[in-house]
Write a structure and sequence with these properties.
Layout (H helix, E strand, L loop, with lengths): L9 H7 L1 H17 L14 H13 L9 H26 L6 H10 L1 H4 L4 H8 L7 H12 L10 E8 L2 E7 L21 H21 L6
Antiparallel strand pairs: 1-2
Helix pairs in contact: 2-3, 5-8
Length: about 220
């Protein structure tokens, strides 16, 4: 049995009662301000200090407890989802390389590769199991890609990006970024060393001769 809500169509109810809701919110905010804007005792997440202080302070002053009490669970859930998506996107990257693909292509691969199925994030895995019961997995996967577009996952910062269209279907590509700390740089070979002022001028002249064409090409209005 699903949950029952006091206002099943919340958006419609808010639109009808907008004036009363705003008045009530302003009353709560005014009472908090008159009390000296006391800071809340709840957790203040980094990056949202101002919002959490104001909203948490108003709610706590009004006697509403539990603001952000599930914050740790949210963080843990987000970390778990990020790890799952990192594994899935890495598997798609390994299979497709730099080639773009549609959600229908991914479904075809899933139908023929149990190892790829094993990398599905938990929410997609549940929908995959229901694909023969009326759930459109192609559509569900497309919405999941859209929601995650551009978000970086894992050490290689794997992310799903749009890559055009094909027959009215969105094409996707997995992009990856190798962190600088994982790159192996070869030390540059030492260049020639001038032993006199004349040799130094000669070396500088040679360098200027090599870079001049590039410099001119970058400034075509001077040609």
């Amino acid at each position: 049995m699903g949950r029952k809500f006091k206002h099943p169509d919340l958006k419609a109810w808010v639109a009808v009662n907008r004036g009363e809701i705003i008045a009530a919110l302003l009353t709560l905010a005014r009472a908090w301000f008159a009390a000296g804007r006391p800071a809340p005792s709840s957790a203040i997440p980094g990056g949202y200090e101002s919002w959490a202080t104001v909203v948490g302070g108003i709610l706590e002053h009004a006697g509403v407890s539990g603001f952000l009490s599930n914050l740790q669970n949210v963080y843990e859930k987000a970390d778990e989802e990020t790890a799952e998506w990192a594994e899935f996107l890495e598997a798609l990257s390994k299979r497709n390389g730099e080639e773009a693909f549609t959600t229908a292509d991914v479904v075809f691969d899933l139908e023929n590769d149990s190892d790829l199925v094993a990398t599905l994030p938990e929410d997609l895995s549940t929908d995959w199991a229901k694909r023969n019961t009326g759930v459109s997995f192609v559509r569900r996967l497309g919405k999941a890609f859209s929601a995650r577009e551009g978000r970086r996952h894992g050490e290689m910062e794997a992310r799903i990006e749009r890559a055009g269209e094909a027959r009215n279907a969105v094409k996707w590509r997995v992009e990856r970024t190798i962190p600088a700390r994982l790159l192996q740089f070869q030390p540059a070979e030492p260049g020639p060393v001038a032993e006199s002022a004349a040799e130094e001028m000669e070396l500088l002249a040679g360098i200027a001769k090599r870079i001049q064409p590039t410099f001119i090409a970058a400034r075509p209005w001077q040609m």
